[in-house]
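Q: How would the structure tokens look for this protein?
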Amino acid sequence: MAQQPERANVIKEELVEQNFHFLAVYVEAKNSILVLLSEREDKLGTMAIAVPKPKDLLGTATSSILSGDRFAITARLFAEHIAAKKDKIAVVSVYLEQLTEMQAQAYFMKLLDKVMKTEAKAKEAEKI
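A: Here is the predicted structure in token form.
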């Protein structure tokens, strides 16, 4: 019997800080990662894509906005961060209702750290 290809890993995390509810949906496939970052409820927002730099080139990941413009700085920042850290194509969506992107960046970074810790624990559990 043929071995089944590995399926995408999905992680959902939440963070409540100063009465604001932040959500993350993280989907990791073999060559890419999709992350939805939002406030209050899961919604699609400004989307950015980033491609990691080849190992022999200096610099950071290259990114572009796919749709939207309200949260372009934050979407590109996190897409580039994830692409560089995971060495995979990263698509990031950012949706905010009340906070500005500058106010939300620290919370989203904390939320992404939480997602990465959950992912690391899941990978360790798979090895056992």
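The chain has a mean pLDDT of 91.

The radius of gyration is 15 Å.

Upvote if useful.
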